[in-house]
Amino acid sequence: MILATANQAPAGIESYLMTYGPLVLMFVVLYFLLIRPQQKRQKTRNMMLSSVKKGDKIVTIGGLHGTIVELTDDTIVLRVNDVTKLTFERSAINAVTPAPSVEDK
């Protein structure tokens, strides 16, 4: 009787590994292929949005090119040409080209 129960204990552990092992493995693979890269992209985007300043040339998500004239916590005002100024949400910024520094001029 003792010998029979000793043989059954490892079989129970093996059945748990066979049942939950693939689920754990799939979660680990999905984390490294999907979740982690998305978190890195989100972090770099947030850093880019927080580092914009007046005078930077930007491109919006819609493809509009302009220069930042005014800046608040949530909105930006872009100068598209000499007369046109447009207001956008800060989250509408897609790419930033820093303003040329004094040394570059």
Automatic annotation (TrEMBL):
It is found in: Cell membrane. It is a single-pass membrane protein. GO terms for biological process: protein transport. Keywords: Cell membrane, Membrane, Protein transport, Translocation, Transmembrane, Transmembrane helix, Transport. SMART domains: YajC. The keyword Transport applies. The chain crosses the membrane at residues 17-35. The keyword Calcium does not apply. One of its GO terms (cellular component) is plasma membrane. InterPro entries: Preprotein_translocase_YajC (IPR003849). NCBIfam families: yajC. PANTHER family: SEC TRANSLOCON ACCESSORY COMPLEX SUBUNIT YAJC (PTHR33909). This is Preprotein translocase subunit YajC.
